[in-house]
């Protein structure tokens, strides 16, 4: 009898250990790797919580748009019309849909599509070439995720308009805006490379690949430091031909990294991947704090979105080869910033974020700030799902 009881006790201990291990695996996301996606990891849970907060705090059902801030003054809720912020809102909805498969994200994309059209006089093109590139990239991803033809058409209409921004001023490149055709910058060129390369990969037009290569070559020749890989912001802003080498922004690095990644995917030319890795390696010296590993705050407004753009394309670089030494370092960079954002950079009782991922948010949180934090969490959830974190 004593021996039988010992067997029962041993079995109970094994069961407890097994349950404890399963609980730990659930939290770490390991079950997803073992059992084919059944579990929800910790980063996925956080990303979903942030998405729910996003809907609750920013969505305006009547206008079909996300408000510029939470809370917002009534007359300023959607004024001014932050077109390019809303492009990134499309992107984070796609992130949520790809992560979860929840059809509510697809439904929300449809509402936002109509809301943007209604606010922009029934069309998607606008005055700024970089704005249109963000929007085209977002709707192309939405098409990939949902198969909705109207999203593909939006991306193609925008791409046709974007091509008109190329001219011979400053030796080529796409202009920043239609009324300043001689000012060329990274935000108007590197995202265009990503867009053209992705269009080629989806639909096979050699013309799109030629555009991607031509724009990339201009960007690399004119706005990338050949020694460090640091990406400069623009040239001829003041009409004097000078390069804004002091304007160093995280999103400029991100879109150039993304351009290299997409051209590598399109061509299998390793030089594009090497260039992307060079710029990514420079992040540690040029942008992160040596003491904490944190990316900098780049202020409010447009600047609050910059880090989110960076982490999106750093994520694209990581997933190409997660076992590469540089990928592991970049994954650690994202996780360091994600841990800090969740521990220190959100509200005490909310998933509203700060533009500094190491400090609690202000009473009013801008849409750009929220989107940036969400992009970080969604990238970490993506890496987690693939076994990277």
TrEMBL record:
<dbReference type="InterPro" id="IPR053169">
    <property type="entry name" value="MUG_Protein"/>
</dbReference>
<dbReference type="InterPro" id="IPR008928">
    <property type="entry name" value="6-hairpin_glycosidase_sf"/>
</dbReference>
<dbReference type="InterPro" id="IPR005198">
    <property type="entry name" value="Glyco_hydro_76"/>
</dbReference>
<dbReference type="Pfam" id="PF03663">
    <property type="entry name" value="Glyco_hydro_76"/>
</dbReference>
<protein>
    <submittedName>
        <fullName>Glycosyl hydrolase</fullName>
    </submittedName>
</protein>
<dbReference type="GO" id="GO:0016787">
    <property type="term" value="F:hydrolase activity"/>
</dbReference>
<keyword id="KW-0378">Hydrolase</keyword>
<dbReference type="GO" id="GO:0005975">
    <property type="term" value="P:carbohydrate metabolic process"/>
</dbReference>
<dbReference type="InterPro" id="IPR014512">
    <property type="entry name" value="O_gly_hydro"/>
</dbReference>
């Amino acid at each position: 009898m004593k021996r039988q009881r010992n067997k029962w006790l041993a079995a109970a201990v094994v069961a407890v250990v097994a349950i404890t291990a399963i609980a730990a695996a659930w939290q770490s996301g390991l079950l997803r790797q073992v059992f084919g996606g059944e579990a929800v990891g910790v980063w996925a849970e956080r990303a979903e919580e942030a998405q729910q907060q996003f809907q609750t705090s920013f969505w305006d059902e009547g206008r079909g748009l996300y408000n510029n801030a939470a809370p917002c003054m009534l007359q300023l809720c959607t004024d001014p019309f932050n077109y390019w912020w809303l492009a990134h809102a499309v992107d984070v909805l796609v992130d949520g849909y790809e992560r979860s498969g929840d059809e509510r994200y697809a439904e929300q994309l449809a509402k936002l599509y109509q809301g943007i059209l209604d606010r922009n006089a029934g069309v998607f093109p606008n005055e700024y070439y970089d704005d249109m590139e963000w929007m085209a990239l977002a709707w192309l991803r939405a098409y990939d995720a949902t198969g909705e033809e109207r999203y593909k058409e939006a991306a193609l209409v925008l791409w046709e308009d974007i091509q008109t921004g190329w001219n011979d001023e400053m030796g080529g490149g796409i202009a920043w805006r239609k009324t300043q055709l001689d000012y060329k910058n990274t935000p108007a060129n590197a995202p265009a490379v990503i867009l053209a390369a992705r269009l080629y990969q989806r639909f096979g037009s050699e013309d799109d690949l030629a555009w991607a290569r031509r724009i990339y070559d201009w960007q690399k020749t004119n706005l990338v430091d050949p020694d460090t890989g640091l990406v400069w912001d623009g040239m001829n802003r003041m009409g004097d031909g000078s390069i804004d080498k002091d304007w160093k922004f995280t999103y400029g690095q991100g879109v150039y990294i993304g351009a290299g990644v997409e051209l590598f995917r399109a061509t299998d030319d390793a030089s594009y991947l090497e260039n992307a890795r060079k710029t990514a390696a420079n992040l540690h010296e040029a942008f992160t704090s040596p003491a904490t590993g944190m990316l900098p705050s780049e202020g409010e407004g447009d600047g609050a979105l910059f880090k989110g753009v960076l982490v999106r394309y750093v994520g694209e670089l990581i997933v190409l080869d997660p076992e590469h030494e540089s990928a592991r370092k970049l994954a650690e960079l994202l996780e360091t910033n994600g841990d800090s954002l969740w521990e220190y950079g959100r509200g005490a009782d909310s998933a509203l974020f700060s533009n500094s991922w190491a400090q609690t948010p202000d009473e009013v949180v801008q849409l750009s700030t929220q989107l940036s934090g969400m992009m970080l969490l969604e990238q970490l959830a993506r890496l987690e799902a693939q076994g990277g974190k």
